[in-house]
Amino acid sequence: MPGVFLFDLDMTLVDSSALAQMRRFQMWDNVRQNMHLIRPFPAQGRAAPHELPGLLKADGQTVGIVTSSPDWYATAVLQQFRIPYDVLVSYGDTENHKPDPEPIQEALRRLGVAASGESLYIGDDVGDIEAAYHAGLTSVAVRWGPTSIFELSSSAPDVFMAKASTLLKRERLGGRGYIGEALTSKWPFHSHWGSILHCDDDPTVYALGRYFTASDPRHATSALSAAVLSLKNDDTHAKVLGEAVGKAIANLDWAPDYVVPVPMKPSQQRNRFEQLLNEAVDHFDEDIELELKGLRVVKEIEGYKQMNPLERAEAIKGAFQSNFKWNGNKVLLIDDVYTTGETTGECVRTLAASGAGEVRIMTLAKDQRVFSRKICPACGRSMKIRTNSTSNVKFWGCSGYPSQCQNTEDF
């Protein structure tokens, strides 16, 4: 169980949104005069966010505050809300600041604790998540902060929670990850709001976890990323991915009438979603109908992945058709990886034009911003994690390999 809980302060433990502009522009005299505008967040479950440190300390846990605000400000806020702590690291305590890991590392140093995934850093924005990653801690993001769902899902935390009280169920924290990552990795899994990665609101988009590209060190240990990649060629992981999709659908607070996959291209012979969704059917309500041919592709686009988002949006127009009359029924659209959303967006428009009611999207994974890149010292390109075809050993290979650069390094 976690030994250390480190917290961000503003918009994580307290609502200081009224002072956001003053703090951003370092108008500290104005901040001093308006400290009374800082508010507690409402209770989330059986605890309000500012009560978490006290409840955890009462339970024997070590608690720290790591903030980019100055010491006088942080101390005043912690006193104002009677928030106890074992260590406080503020802006002046380190040379580098979040998303650099130095402030978190300084807190651990003062506590005499080594970095470990058993310890948590809890924050509200992507800088907190990235700092935790570089420091070697498990990242926890809170939903009540101001950061958009899309931004947080693109740099997603290890644990995403909507209720403060989720953090108090310490014996279950190890199973609070995303359902797709848990099932493909054979990890413990406990259902909660953040079991499914919430990616967007218009239309609503869900993902079963995070997809890491080969230039991200996390790719090498991501069972979900490997399973999604393999699905392009075979059905080795169709059963476990189907189970994840089915259980995720069953856990939604919204029930579709139909489940429809993004269709295969005319040049493709194999429907990569067919076996997966036939497996998924065993796990969701039998009143939900699977329609594998609810959409079809009527034009194939060359070089689509190399296009920028604006080019994609233009090229994808009119690429899909539906011969069904959906009669206002709700549809859940299934895709593999959610990146910029142009393909699924056009599918949603096609379904709506054919009479579908609300259409939501569920993808196997959400594409992630790379936190750490390894640069090839020979040519300056990004390096990717590759696998030797004979020994199955992973190694770093230049993205220009083999035609433009043959540099490799041990992983």
Q: How would you describe this protein?
A:
This protein has 411 residues and is α/β, with parallel strands linked by helices. The chain has 3 domains: 172 residues, HAD superfamily/HAD-like (Rossmann fold, 3-Layer(aba) Sandwich), CATH 3.40.50; 171 residues, Rossmann fold (3-Layer(aba) Sandwich); 38 residues. Helices cover 27% and strands 19% of the residues. It is built from 13 helices and 20 strands. Strands 9, 10, 11, 12, 13, 16 and 17 form a 7-stranded mixed beta sheet that branches. Strands 5-4-1-6-7-8 form a 6-stranded parallel beta sheet, sandwiched between helices. Helix 10 packs across helix 11. It is globular, with a radius of gyration of 23 Å. It starts with a strand and ends with a strand. The mean pLDDT is 92.
**CATH homologous superfamily (4th level) name of the largest domain:** HAD superfamily/HAD-like
User: How many distinct helices?
Assistant: 13
The domain count comes to: 3
CATH fold label of the largest domain: Rossmann fold
Q: What is the level 1 CATH name of the largest domain?
A: Alpha Beta
Q: Please indicate the percent range of residues in DSSP E strands (runs of 2 or more).
A: 15-25%
State the share of residues found in helices, binned by percent: 25-40%
* Average pLDDT rating: 92
Overall, the morphology is globular
Biggest sheet, open or closed, and with what strands and sense? Answer: 7 strands, mixed
E-strand count: 20
**Separation, N- and C-terminal Cα atoms:** 29 Å
Judged by helices, strands and strand pairing, the structural class is alpha/beta
Please identify the oligomeric state. Answer: single chain
What is the architecture of the largest domain at the second tier of CATH?
Answer: 3-Layer(aba) Sandwich
Low-confidence stretches: none
